[in-house]
Specification:
Domain HTH lysR-type: 2-59
Number of helices: 10
Family: Belongs to the LysR transcriptional regulatory family.
Number of strands: 10
Pfam families: HTH_1 (PF00126), LysR_substrate (PF03466)
Shape: globular
Protein name: LysR family transcriptional regulator
InterPro entries: LysR_HTH_N (IPR000847), LysR_subst-bd (IPR005119), WH-like_DNA-bd_sf (IPR036388), WH_DNA-bd_sf (IPR036390)
Strand order of the largest sheet: 4-3-5-10-6-9
Structural class: alpha/beta
CATH topology of the largest domain: D-Maltodextrin-Binding Protein, domain 2
């Protein structure tokens, strides 16, 4: 019988590429991960890994097993969700991840509605960049997360994660009539490696230039404060631009940011997940969109 915990480690190896990366994500030692994967090979009866020095790659049989692992782990999530529903209403810890704008604007009213309707639930919120959500969900560090995607940035696909659309909002450019007009300006963007940063760079490239990025700032309130101080221009989403500082002008662009709820594939019918998503939708009706 194949052990689902070992299948999870094999799937992580297929995604992350090294034993060390899997060990860090799973909070195991590299030696423990290697031992678990060796045990999985014995259970499978065929070589799953090809070891060359310190390099480990999956064999064709390993890749085949990873494809089946997606289905096995999804079915286990469905079974867990069904058992939770059989126990009654949602209760216990609910680990929610969210990006800063959602944490500030959407989650407070959503949490009021969620805990009011389901007092047995204990929501625990962690701010996290959407780029890191899939790994946190797969590792079981989060149960549900608010993520976003932008025009110019294709959504990150992950066979182990499902998403449910929540709402869309327009993007604005500060202090200029068009992105092309900001060719010579200093720019304020998020940190490299984030979706916000990638969106800003690609929007400028689509306008025919590479932006001169002077500041890397994650929080949009701080971004707008820097814009007001004459430190550069920026792209900001609608929910971050409801009350801009005095002197900052905003031009609506034909670009959008879309917010979604993300959760492990197969876990979408878990009563706690459904309750959280229902609370998100209820809170959205009161947002100034």
């Amino acid at each position: 019988m194949l052990d689902p915990r070992k299948l999870h480690l094999l799937r992580e190896l297929a995604r992350r590429g090294t034993i060390a990366a899997v060990a860090e994500a799973a909070t195991f030692t590299p030696s423990a991960v290697s031992q678990q994967l060796s045990a999985l090979e014995r259970e499978a009866g065929v070589p799953l890994l090809e070891r060359t020095g310190r390099t480990v790659t999956l064999t064709p049989a390993g890749h085949l097993l990873v494809e089946h692992a997606h289905a096995v782990l999804e079915q286990l999530e469905r079974a867990s969700a069904a058992l939770a529903a059989a126990r009654g209403g949602p209760s216990g810890p609910l680990r929610i991840g969210a990006f800063p704008t959602a944490t500030r604007v959407l989650l407070p009213p959503a949490l009021v509605g969620l805990t009011g309707a389901h007092p047995g639930l204990v929501p625990m919120v962690s701010e996290i960049d959407p780029a890191h959500v899939s790994a946190a969900l797969r590792a079981g560090e989060l149960d549900v997360a608010l993520v976003h995607e932008y025009d110019f940035v294709p959504p990150v696909t992950d066979a182990s994660i499902e998403t449910e659309p929540l709402f869309s909002e327009p993007m604005y450019l500060t202090d200029r009539a068009s992105i092309a007009d900001a060719r010579a300006d200093a720019w304020i963007t998020d940190r490299p490696g984030t979706l916000c940063h990638t969106m800003a760079i690609r929007a400028c490239q689509a306008a025919g230039f590479e932006p001169l990025v002077r500041h890397h700032i994650d929080d949009f309130d701080t971004v707008l404060a820097f814009v007001a101080a004459g430190q550069g221009v920026a792209l900001v989403p609608h929910l971050a631009a409801i009350a801009p500082p005095e002197g900052v002008t905003l031009t609506r662009l034909p670009l959008s940011r879309r917010t979604l709820a993300a959760f492990r594939r197969g876990n979408g019918e878990h009563p706690a997940i459904r309750a959280a998503i229902a609370a998100f939708h209820a809170a959205i009706t009161h947002l100034p969109l």
